[in-house]
Specification:
The protein is mainly alpha-helical and about 400 residues long. The chain contains 15 helices and five strands. Helix 2 runs parallel beside helix 15. The longest helix is centred in the last third of the chain and has 22 residues. The protein is globular and about 55 Å long. The two termini are about 30 Å apart.
């Protein structure tokens, strides 16, 4: 029977958006216990050193830009927008990307080093890895340098569940069998079969992407999350994306302009139903491991934001939004996202998943000088097409095929 965990509530406001409060007591039906293999994977390797945050009101100390980066791109969390800025940063500096042979690293199977194109044991490490995988720390460490900065992004399962239902309707049997999201939430056990191919999209998707096993009690969940925090130096919040980009820029010692990016892989504002508070509570209950993950990392994020400083964060977020708006006005036809059918250039047209979800993209404004057009095109290029650009730069040739999702 589904419970109704209380939604996030304010903890310390400090004039920032509210942080998540007390972790909801977990129910008894949370799956199987944490395995020894997970302990070895997440706790056995060298822990990542956290980037320092300057105390509030004090200017940051001199630092060097970080260029060895591991971004775990989770599903339906805004990760495509982060991947775009990583693509642009790395391409502009001639960095070496760890790329999949197609578009994902064998997902949903756990990541393995041999899934990286051009990888060979004992060969030179890569600089950036950022495409979809099911995280496996031991294998990632074979590919990436020891000083790599690990980060990811999460989203409240109360809204992620609706997005996953719309996007993965054709590939998740649990979603496909349900006539609507409301019908699914009324009796999810009627439609969901654990272990069925594609059903990882239908329950605790973020927990799955992080490579965490099911856990049957609160102590096991807390142990898993503590280990996760020691592996990842920063986890962004989709709901506070701009604040996340500012904290990421600070941690990486990047210039402010490096994190200006357009939103990618988004849906139209009126595309499909949005969830009611009662439905959001049911989604959190059904995705209870994801809710535990989100609540824990939400608190960690706002502790970091507090250390950064409220006024400083507001000011830099305002500059980021101004910069993004100026770029959109300068670069984009109509100044914003468009339906795929309105984008004449196939190189900028985003992949459309099977089913009803519509994914927006961008068309460039006419009359841009060649140099500006190239710069604007990189900001607007969808993830799949940009991956192909990087693939050709590193290996020659091309890869024009498109996968069936995510």
């Amino acid at each position: 029977m589904l419970g109704s965990p209380e939604p996030p509530c304010p903890r310390r406001r400090m004039k920032l958006p509210p942080a998540c409060c007390r972790l909801q007591t977990l129910g008894a039906a949370l799956g199987v216990c944490v395995t020894i293999g997970f302990t070895v994977q997440l706790l056995g390797g060298p822990f990542q050193r956290r980037a320092p945050v300057a105390p509030a009101g004090r200017p940051p100390a001199p630092c060097q830009p970080r260029t060895h980066l591991v971004f775990l791109k989770t599903h339906k969390t805004g990760g495509s927008s982060v991947v775009n800025l990583l693509h642009r940063f790395g391409e502009a500096r001639g960095l070496r990307f760890a790329l999949p042979h197609r578009y994902q690293f064998g997902y949903p199977s756990p990541f393995r080093a041999e899934r990286v194109k051009g990888y060979r044991p004992g060969g030179p490490p890569f600089d950036i890895i950022c495409h979809h995988m099911r995280f496996n720390l031991t294998e990632v460490q074979k590919v990436m340098p020891n000083d790599s900065f690990y980060f990811s992004i999460v989203r409240d399962p109360g809204t992620l569940g609706e997005s996953a239902f719309a996007y993965y309707r054709a590939v998740a049997p649990a979603f496909r069998r349900a006539p609507s999201l409301a019908a699914f939430l009324a009796a999810p056990g009627r439609f969901y079969e654990a272990g069925a191919r594609g059903n990882h999209y239908a329950r605790n998707l973020q927990w799955f992407d992080f490579g965490l096993p099911a856990a049957e009690d609160g102590a096991a969940v807390e142990a898993a999350l503590a280990g996760l925090e020691r592996a990842f130096s920063l986890v962004l919040l989709a709901e506070h994306f701009d604040e996340s980009l500012v904290l990421l820029r600070e941690a990486l010692c990047w210039p402010e302009e490096a994190v200006a990016a357009f939103a990618h892989n988004g849906r139209p504002a009126g595309d499909g139903p949005r969830v009611s508070p009662a439905q959001a509570a049911r989604l959190r209950a059904w995705n209870s491991l994801d809710w535990a993950l989100y609540a824990h990392l939400n608190r960690s994020f706002w502790r970091r934001a507090e250390a950064f400083g409220a006024a400083r964060l507001r000011e830099e977020v305002a500059r980021l939004r101004q910069r993004r708006a100026a770029l959109a006005h300068h670069c984009l036809q109509g100044g914003g996202p468009l339906p795929a059918r309105a984008i004449p250039d196939g190189r900028l047209r985003p992949f459309q998943p099977p089913g009803r979800a519509q994914i927006l993209g961008y068309a460039l404004r006419a009359g841009l000088p060649p140099t500006e057009r190239e710069r604007c095109a990189r900001l607007a290029t969808p993830e799949l097409q940009y991956k192909d650009i990087l693939d050709r730069r590193q290996f020659g040739g091309g890869n024009a095929s498109v996968p069936p999702g995510g």
